[in-house]
Amino acid sequence: MEQAIARLEGAMELRPYSVPEGMEGKEAVVGKGRNQQQVKMTVAAYSAAKFRHIRAALVETSGPTQVLNFVIFPDPSLDLPIFGADLVSLPGAHLICIDLQARIRFRKQLNSQYQKSQHTALAAHAQARLPWGGNLPSAAQRFFSPHCIWSKVGDIEVVETAALEAMLAYLDHYLAMAAAAEPVKDEGLLKGLAEGHLAYSRYRRINDPARGMLTRFFGTEWAEDVISHALFDLEAKVDSGAVSLAHGQELLAEMAAEP
Ligand SMILES: C=CC1=C(C)[C@@H](CC2=N/C(=C\c3[nH]c(/C=C4\NC(=O)C(C)=C4C=C)c(C)c3CCC(=O)O)C(CCC(=O)O)=C2C)NC1=O
Predict the structure, then answer these.
(1) Which ligand 1 atom is nearest residue 59's CA?
(2) 87: left (phi over 0), alpha (psi -120 to 50) or beta
(3) Can you tell me the distance from the alpha carbon of 258 to that of 85, in angstroms, rounded to the nearest whole number?
(4) Could you say which residues form the signal peptide (predicted)?
(5) How confident is the model over 151-167, as pLDDT tens digits?
(6) How far is the CA of 132 from the centre of ligand 1 (A)?
(7) ipTM value > 0.85
(8) What residue ranges do the domains of the chain occupy?
(9) CB within 10 Å: which end of the chain, N or C, has fewer?
(10) Whole-model pTM above 0.90?
(11) Which of ligand 1's atoms lies nearest the C-alpha of 41?
């Protein structure tokens, strides 16, 4: 997490992003006897010129489970993907998921030949060292790009080397894309980007694979609050008017009406 934040600090002025009180972190002792373990969750959040919400969630335990979930939501008036990284160590397996997740039309978001070739090269390099993790959850597939890194490995050393390198390389590439991005004027595209951001945040809020773990560690109420108001807060922010999105309220109502 520190290395990723240092990369961001090197590229831009980070501004504090308020995390609702009590959701910045939590500690607990869970399990009994030999299964007893200390667990701790930390949420760090920032914003910046071209980024609405930069947030890292870290789950540390005295057992084998360790999680870094790092997501960057760009300013929704920029035609940029969402940066997503999930480095998850579980008993017996390490899950790695790193991607520049398209909001509308991935290929066009890599708007220069150089970016396309760069990204293709990055993905090829990473995928050579991180074996494909098998099918992604079918409902989530629409959110993943062709250059997604999705892997399951047995050796923590691979997470600490290849996975971390890949995450930082994708982050550098993403920051280069952001540096070149200009605000979108086209109303139709602005609405499309707004819809994309809301659909992504809503999917991840509803289907967060960490829900079970967070509920076991910290209880249902805190787990639900942190997922909806600290990790994937866009719907709540648009609903309260704290964030204004093109057609935001209308899109929220449409999504809420969906089966
Ligand atoms: C759009 C969807 C999307 C994802 C699901 C994640 C990418 C991702 N994360 C996964 C799994 C996964 N991810 C986490 C952790 C987190 N995942 C999160 O979004 C947050 C905020 C986490 C922690 C705070 C854990 C603990 C697991 C393991 C769950 C388990 O098996 O017990 C999986 C495996 C499949 C699954 O269990 O669903 C994927 C594909 N990134 C994405 O972009």
Answers:
(1) 24
(2) beta
(3) 28
(4) none
(5) 999 999 988 899 999 99
(6) 16
(7) yes
(8) 2-184
(9) C
(10) yes
(11) 24
